Amino acid sequence: MQLYKPEVEAQRFWNPYTQTMPRAELDPLHLRKLQTVIAYAYARSPMYRKLLDRHKVRPEQIRTLDDFVKRLPFIDKKEILDAQAVNPPFGDALAISEDFFHQRFATSGSTGTPLHIPLTYHSAELWGESWVYGFWAAGLRARHSFYFAFNWGIFAAFWSAYMGVRRLGATVISGGGLDSKARLRQIEQYRPDVILATPTYALYLGETARELGMDLAKTSISHVFVAGEPGASIPATRRAIEELWGAKCYELYGIAELGPTNPGCPLQGGVHLCEEWYHALVVDESGHPVPYGEVGEHIVTSYIQDGQPLIKYRTHDLVRWTDVPCGCGTTWLYYPGGVLGRTDQMIIVKGVNVYPSALEALLHRVAGLSEHYELHVGRDALNDFVTVKVEARGEIDENRYASVGREAEAVFKSAIGVSIGVEVQKPGSLPRYELKAKRFFDHRPAAHRWQLSGGPGA
Ligand SMILES: [Zn+2]
Questions:
Q1: How far is the CA of 255 from the centre of ligand 1 (A)?
Q2: Which residues are within 5 Å of ligand 1 (an ion), measured at CB?
Q3: Residue 67 Cα, ligand 1 centroid: separation in angstroms?
Q4: What secondary structure does DSSP assign to 112-137, as a single string?
């Protein structure tokens, strides 16, 4: 196979043709793909036909990217759920017969009804390939082996990574159905090169390893690939994972309904949009795209979901997009810092936007504080205010907590320009999480949270 030629193995990109395509060529390619998926969805999905009819727009009226931005409505999870409720489980959201389904996923439904996600064989394979862009850029090849610290449930999670490892031609080792100790023993036995896990679990395994008297830095793992929550693009969190495992840590940002949209940059400072399979906008609360360099809600269109198309789908994730090259050589859109938070986690203190991921990064600059913290956001008459509860490290004496807290407050004040309260607590006082950490506690009235209220979807 061509893949195994040494000159191909040495190549920096999985697909140099599209990964280095100039923007002047990428954008017309996007327009053609967008026109194709819009016409497909309109012709085949009752949900999209109703949505576009309601907004009085027909597919042939999308002649430019500007038309796409200004005329085509956004779609949100709620509309898909409503369409699925018409004839469960998939209902009016479907664009293809269930006979073509290859795999079904669902969201956890932790905030309501689960959203059903059908994939055709074509979609499943291409979800996998999106991971390969990240694997390849991180230097991983067919000769490597990948350990899945993952339970193979109905949630998409690392299933797409599994498809990616197969596409790469590498080896899969399953840690499904095992507890953490058994997984660590498997890692000792099989000697995989890569572990895939959430950032919280990658760190949690460190506590399990300590109980076993095992040093993770001495295992065969050379790469930790994290997904499922922000992590590897936050320098301090990445450093903690890298020190624990003695390995390089990379991330992929994906969205359950859309798949692995954003493989991490090999320079580790953020993620790229996989422009082969996805189009994205970053918009403000009025629904208008924000200028490059600014933060807004990530709005994504998939080119690869023929079962249940998603066009201008609201992710509720906050990202900063930029046209400044990141240095790795790709022309694909770059989001420094990865996902900065959820739209409902947007905090504005005295006119200054404060992002949870920025607070996490700053917290780690203060010696004596651990990675266990919570953000509590409230609101007084005029402003949001934030209190950070954070555990001290074990070696810090309790009578120093107040001064360490003041030091953290000074770091926040100088970096962000506003006051953030810090309460330092004893080690072990905050809850522990195995898969994803709950760190954001919102005590504000709903009216003071971020709302996408304008734009063509309004
Ligand atoms: Zn890059």
A1: 20
A2: 265, 326, 328
A3: 29
A4: SSPPEEEEEHHHHHHHHHHHHHHHHH
pLDDT over 80 at 228, yes or no: yes
Beta carbons within 8 Å of 249's beta carbon, 6+ residues apart: 202, 223, 224, 225, 226, 231, 232, 238, 241, 242, 268
> Which domains are delineated in the chain?
1-344 (3.40.50.12780), 347-448 (3.30.300.30)
Q: How confident is the model at residue 380 (pLDDT cuts 50, 70, 90)?
A: confident
Q: Tell me how far CA of residue 421 lies from CA of 12, 56, 401, 454, in angstroms.
A: 45, 49, 13, 33
Query: How far is ligand 1, taken at its centre, from the CA of residue 164, in Å?
Result: 19
Cα 433 to averaged position of ligand 1 atoms, centre (Å) = 31
C-alpha distance from residue 265 to each of 60, 121, 250, 275, 428 (Å): 36, 27, 8, 13, 34
Nearest in space to 366 (alpha carbons), one of 335, 392, 342, 346: 392
Q: Tell me, in angstroms, the distance from the centre of ligand 1 to residue 269's CA.
A: 8
Q: Which of 12-21, 103-112, 136-145 has the lowest mean pLDDT?
A: 103-112
The Å distance, Cα 348 to ligand 1 centre, comes to 29
Distance 336 CA to ligand 1 centre (A): 9
pLDDT tens profile 67-105: 999 999 999 999 999 999 988 899 999 999 999 999 999
pLDDT at 185 over 90: yes
